[in-house]
Amino acid sequence: MTPFALDLPPFRPRPPWLGAHLQTVRNALAKPAVPRVAAGSKALRLPVRDGTGDVLHATLDLPAEVREGLPLVLMAHGVSGSAESFYMRATAADLLPLGYRVLRLNLRGAGPSRIDCRRHYHAGRSGDLRDAIAALPAGLTAAGVVAVGFSLGGNTVLKLAGEQGADGPVVAAASVCAPIDMGATTRNLNRRANRPFQAYLLKGFKIEYVAPGAELTDELRAAVAAARSFAEFDATVSAPRNGAPDVESFYRENSSKHYLAGIRVPTLAIAAEDDPIVPFAPYRTVDWRALPAVVTAFTPGGGHVGHHGRNGIWYIEAIRRFLSAL
Predict the structure, then answer these.
(1) What gap in Å lies between CA 285 and CA 180, rounded to an integer?
(2) Quick count: other Cβ atoms within 10 Å of Cβ 210?
(3) Is 103 helix (H, G, I), strand (E, B) or coil?
(4) Are 262 and 162 in contact (CB under 8 A)?
(5) Do 209 and 201 contact (CB within 8 A), yes or no?
(6) Which among 38, 48, 212, 236 has most CB atoms closer than 10 A?
(7) Mean of the pLDDT values across residues 165-189?
(8) pLDDT tens-digit series, residues 185-222
(9) Taking a C-beta distance cutoff of 8 angstroms, is the pair 255, 180 a contact?
(10) Sign of the C-alpha dihedral, residues 105, 111, 113, 114?
């Protein structure tokens, strides 16, 4: 079986979570518990190599029985997320019994990484993932690394895979609802129907951005406080803080759609056509047939990092089948 014949069942939503919005907010409403199935977990500190002295915090989950020869699964979260986000823990809980070691990474400035980071993550900061992998003990990465990203982290993972090409530590990648066009996503979030999602995500992101540890000028702190949308935030904070001449240049430089053609390792791209946060239109502009290393799993429904199906979370099953086919 190859990674490109996953034979996935169709996604069928689990009542009462019907429709894009309920699929998207289900975890926030239901607050599901995730079983702690790891035989052991270790807290790791992984320095980045850009001269800032920033250090990423991560949790390494170990299975009861490690299957030799399996790659390490590294997970990257989305906006206002962390290693403790439900989708990270639920996916880890599914893979650990299969013998995988799972590294749940807190991106730069997220969760416990905040206190040890002067700078902050954004969707295109793929270098942080490279540095995190390089900082791991060699025994963990001897069989390679599979990078799995959710939402913003999905864009980061796809960008990393495209930059690396065939020669690097990442032997496979998977993304779930990645905003492959950052500009289109921020504009979509600013639509009237999506402003509640934007308000919720932006509030948490802004609190995180200025928390202790952040190195910001008074001007940037004022811009963070004043931003009323992600579009404003990126124009007044993200772009200038990351050296971009303007926000459109920042989006072009960091949107993974511009790096897809460079992907040479098996890659799974999962997305829902009804995603209210990440628009599906940019996925339609990509000629996926011209990307032989990439297999797509696009569904009419599922919302944003939802896919709550009748037999469990559909994207987790897709990731599991993808990994077993490598």
Answers:
(1) 11
(2) 15
(3) strand
(4) yes
(5) no
(6) 48
(7) 96
(8) 999 999 999 999 999 999 999 999 999 999 999 999 99
(9) yes
(10) positive
Q: What is the 3-state secondary structure (H, E, C) of 76-116?
A: ECCCCCCCCCHHHHHHHHHHHHHCCCEEEECCCCCHHHHHH
Asked whether 3 and 321 are in contact (CB, 8 A), the reply is: no
Helix (H, G, I), strand (E, B) or coil at 76: strand
Give pLDDT, residue 6.
83
Contact 116, 55 (CB under 8 A): yes
Q: Which of 171, 130, 179 is nearest to 264 (CA)?
A: 171
Rounded to 10 degrees, the C-alpha dihedral 191/196/197/198 comes to 60
pLDDT band at 4 (very low <50, low <70, confident <90, very high): low
* 44 contact partners, CB below 8 Å, separation of at least 6: 57, 58, 59, 60, 103, 136
Q: Which two tokens stand for residue 81?
A: 């997320």
Predicted confidence (pLDDT) per residue in 89-105, tens digit: 999 999 999 999 999 99
149-161 pLDDT, tens digit per residue, is 999 999 999 999 9
Domains and CATH numbers, the chain: 20-324 (3.40.50.1820)
Q: What amino acid occupies position 83?
A: A
Dihedral, CA of residue 101, residue 103, residue 104 and residue 106, to nearest 10: 170
Strand partners, 55: 47
List the structure tokens of 217: 């000028």
The CA angle 212-209-124, to the nearest 5 degrees, is 130
DSSP 7-65: -PPPP-BPTT--SHHHHHHHHHHH--------SEEEEEEEE-SSSS--EEEEEEEE-SS
The β-bridge partners of 313 are 308
Residue 93 token pair: 């809980």
Match 């906006």 to its residue by tokens.
Answer: 79
Torsion angle, CA of 230/235/237/238, rounded to 10 degrees?
80
Phi, psi of 34 (to 5 degrees): -115, 125
